Amino acid sequence: MAKASDKTDPVIRAAFDLAARLGWRHVGLADIAAESKLSLAKLYGRYRSKTDILIGFARDIDAAVLAGTGKPSEDESTRDRLFDALMRRFEALGPYKDGLAAILRDGAGGPAALLCGGASLLRSMAWTLESAGVGSNGLKGRLRTKGLFVVYLSSLRVWLRDETEDLAPTMAALDKRLARAESLAQGGLPGWGPRRPESPGPENNGEQAPQS
Asked: Can you give the pLDDT at residue 111?
């Protein structure tokens, strides 16, 4: 399985290592440049701000998750495919867990919104739906995306506290939340139903494909 750490950008790795050690609010761009052994000029040529680094990180995680996605099988339920995709996301995040926790603690709505509450994560959830063979376009697609967004965020809180090797508590929490979402869908809310053949995918919602 592809992981973001396989091709880690040294700037991103440095930023997350420093966040874990110092706290995100205390990390400056000069610190990141020094940790990644770059001059400030070279860092500026790649990233203009700490926010830019977090955006790059989010895109790398998306790319790692999608790289592990195979063609949806008819033998798998939609719920199973979504479970696998979100667990791949947690695996990809694993090497950055301490830094991510620090960033979320210090985010105050800025970095936290980028990683967990804003358009970046909604885009990620749209791609997750598409990877599971579920449409993300149109009104129903947006509702599905927001539903998966809620499932993921609540499971992320469990994952951040999960210190087990097999991530059993995270898997149990994720499965429970997906089951709840599936139940709500069957009760009349827009569900996880398979994508219709004509669905163009997330790009028609103004989203662009993740890039590594």
From this structure: 54
The low-confidence residues of the chain, meaning pLDDT below 50, are: 1-6, 187-190, 194-200, 204-212
Separation CA 38–CA 13 (nearest Å): 13
Model confidence over 30-49: pLDDT tens digits?
999 999 999 999 999 999 99
Neighbours of 73 (CB within 10 A): 10
So where are the chain's domains?
4-195
**Cα(107)–Cα(115) distance, integer angstroms:** 9
* Beta-bridge partners for 194: 134
Q: Exposed/middle/buried for 17, CB within 10 Å: 0-12, 13-18, 19+? A: middle
Q: Residue 130's closest CA among 92, 212, 54, 122? A: 122
Give the pTM: 0.81
Q: Left (φ > 0), alpha (ψ -120 to 50) or beta: where does 133 sit? A: left
Q: Look at the domain 4-195 and name its fold.
A: Tetracycline Repressor; domain 2 (1.10.357)
